[in-house]
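hey m, so remember when u said the tokens were messed up on ur end? i reran from scratch. heres the input so u can diff it against urs
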Amino acid sequence: MDQETIEVEGKITEVLPNTLFRVEIDRAPDLPEIVGRVILAHISGKMRLHYIKLLTGDRVRMEMSPKYDLTKARITFRLK
């Protein structure tokens, strides 16, 4: 994670076509005001490369850009 991204965690609520997911944020240490929001997220390149499967209910770690749009994120890790 570089200094221009915000790392948050959440739970997948809906699986959409083209490796897109709706995720409800449940932990955001840097931005507590976005906890509880549902955002649109896509899978990072490494997760696609290694065929990491994600299902509804999975907990994930995501990166968001404060410069861009706080309604979109990139999923970087599937949590246990």
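this time it looks ok to me. The two ends are 20 Å apart (CA to CA). if urs says something different then somethings off w ur setup not the seq
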